[in-house]
Amino acid sequence: MAECNEELPADKRLEFRIGVNLGDVIVEGQDIYGDGVNVATRLEELADPGGVLISGTAYDQVERKLDYGFDFLGERQVKNIEKLVRLYRIRLDHPRTAAAWTRGKSFRSRVWLSAAVAALVVAVGSVVFWSNSRAPPLELASRARMEFPLPDRPSIAVLPFTNMSGEAGQQHLADGMTDSLITDLSKSAGLFVVARNSTFAYQDRQVTVSQVAEELGVRYILEGSIQRAGDRLRVNAQLVDAFSGGHVWADRFDGNAADIFGVQDAFVTQIVDALKVSLTGNERMEITRGRTDSLRAKEAFDEGWSLYLRFNAKDNAAAVAPLRRAVELDPEYGRAYAALALVYFRIEDYAWHEEVLFKDDDYDWNQQYGAPPRVAMYRAFEHLENATRYPTALVYTAQALAHLRFGRAEDARRQAPGD
């Protein structure tokens, strides 16, 4: 492929990423899966375009049997695999000259060549296993099996992006990317976008595109992965048609982490274009309104929002600090103000303040929330007022809840469509 690409213009070149692993697989009908497949899949996602990554198990078999050098990249924790995986990059552009290849044409050499070919077949077989696991003869989604009627406009479910960073602390970055794409795509009146609560139910589960499509009643599935190393960021995304199994759109970003906002905007624009849906001027303005330009503020918001969505008293309290940090870093961050309002509303709604009130012990509460329980509602409305100055979709949710607190159900219904 590299030789072919040399003769082609840049926009016509085709590059593959290959992951090779040697391990046990499970064969069930035409499906092949198991840890052996999962590791190869993760290596493929980590490989550079045009590059090959192999696992330690494969390296141990071919180290001295191939005319190529290897770079050891360390050990990495990959999704759904308990043990660390050793990674090696094949230096395809710098082959080494092994003495074993130049010691004459004796019978011993022929035996060595046979052994090398056998090892290579094992490596190629591993690639075939990976290919089958990623693209088996697909069971396509069926309208007849849809649990909900298919909408009369293009319908999308955005699955949780996979965190490929190898650090649990970066999970909020992957979740934040998923949230942002759901929010931005839902601004288009020409699209039907499944809510976050429904798609995040599939996080860390092995599911097929057809299964998700049929269970949620959509035609298109957006999936991807995100990997961060310092200031560098890699994002992969693809939109799959569950009825045909084909890719409607796919893209990849490799660059600076500070460019994540531009990546989100570009992905949204390309997705709606691929589905032949036009964004109006107001919709484009809505997508960018209330957003921050600060990467640190965005990271703080994603951390706090992830905690809030866990729906328990402890994590709800823990969400306050990062959300406050977000508005300190960007005092015009409307979505973070709205999230803080929701945090304080939830305290009252689920009576998480009562235990402290009955004990008359405000110290722990003040440590968690930065205010005594008696002023929780005051804080909620204070943050809501700030949120309305920098409107976002999330502020409509907070405003609707505020109306409900005073029995203004009709006002709440009018407010809710804004979200």
Structural key phrases:
12 strands; 3 domains; 47% helix; 6-stranded mixed sheet; 419 residues; alpha/beta; globular; Rossmann fold; 4-stranded mixed sheet; Alpha-Beta Plaits; Serine Threonine Protein Phosphatase 5, Tetratricopeptide repeat
Summarize the amount of helix as a percent range: 40-55%
- The averaged pLDDT comes out at 77
What distance separates the N and C termini? 48 Å
Number of strands: 12
Number of helices: 18
Please state the CA-atom Rg, rounded to the nearest Å.
26 Å
CATH architecture of the largest domain: 3-Layer(aba) Sandwich
Largest sheet: 6 strands, mixed
Low-confidence stretches: 97-137, 356-360
- Globally, the shape reads globular
CATH superfamily of the largest domain: TolB, N-terminal domain
Q: The CATH topology of the largest domain, please?
A: Rossmann fold
Tally of structural domains: 3
Order of helices and strands: HEEEHEHEEHEEHEHHEEEHHHHHHHHHHH
CATH class type of the largest domain: Alpha Beta
Q: Indicate the proportion of strand residues.
A: 15-25%
Backbone structural class: alpha/beta
Describe the fold and architecture.
The chain is an alpha/beta fold and 419 residues long. The chain folds into three domains: 2-133, Nucleotide cyclase, GGDEF domain (Alpha-Beta Plaits); 143-288, TolB, N-terminal domain (Rossmann fold, 3-Layer(aba) Sandwich); 295-418, Tetratricopeptide repeat domain (Serine Threonine Protein Phosphatase 5, Tetratricopeptide repeat), CATH 1.25.40.10. It has helices spanning 2-6, 35-46, 56-62, 107-134, 171-185, 196-199, 209-216, 260-274, 281-288, 295-308, 313-318, 320-329, 334-349, 354-359, 363-369, 376-389, 393-405, 409-415, and strands at 18-20, 26-28, 31-33, 52-55, 69-76, 85-91, 155-158, 162-163, 192-193, 220-229, 232-241, 247-256. Helix 2 (35-46) packs across helix 4, helix 10 packs antiparallel against helix 12 (320-329) and helix 12 runs antiparallel to helix 13 (334-349). The relative contact order is 0.07.
